[in-house]
From TrEMBL:
Gene3D superfamilies, per database record: HAD superfamily/HAD-like, Putative phosphatase, domain 2
NCBIfam families reported in the protein's UniProt record: HAD-SF-IA-v1 (TIGR01549), YjjG_YfnB (TIGR02254)
Keywords, in A-Z order: Hydrolase
Protein name: Putative hydrolase of the HAD superfamily
Pfam families: HAD_2
Organism: Catalinimonas alkaloidigena
Amino acid sequence: MLRYQHLFFDLDHTLWDFDRNSADTLRELFHEFRIADLCTASCEVFIERYRIANELIWEQYRQDLITKEVLRDIRFQKVLTELGVAEKDHPPAMGSEYLRRCPTKTSLLPYTHEVLQYLLGQGYVLHILTNGFEDTQRIKLEGAQLRAYFTHVVTSESCGFKKPHECYFRYALTTTQAHPAHCLMIGDSLEADILGAQRMNLDTVYVNFAQSPHDAAPTYEVACLSELMQIL
């Protein structure tokens, strides 16, 4: 008998390669909107500044300090202003173009399809637990041919709470009709995925691609998704 029945996967940074897909989109926009004509920053500096700003703003969103609409509007304003672009020169369509294009990118972390196929073959029931927005996550899953692997996709919008809130995990357990003892949470965020799941007595797999040091105590830790096939 399988030790676990339900496997809960985070999506961004765990399966869907957010960093690569975002960078590819930003590179396109940097050239199409001729950002080099508006400031002295290189394309790679622009991408790195966006990455830093996006992480900070998403953390504010996770803490309910800003809304979805503010998050989507403020990112490019902040980055372009920091790079010295006058507000009157901010391309008004840049944010909406990013939102339209980025979810359609299909780069995945190594071994994503192989691991998901293996886990289904072993008899596990797979689900997505994500703080991402309903519309963008649907596009990502369908475009990258991931949707068919998962029985349920639980988003923060669908339940009204965000990981790591306990109510999010309660909602996920109710939706999937799963018992905590039979579930395993797999994700790349120590706070949202690992600590959040542990508060609800779920076992966890910390996907630590960078092998960064930490003080958490996940049930398992992997540096590559392929290692899941040794655990499960």
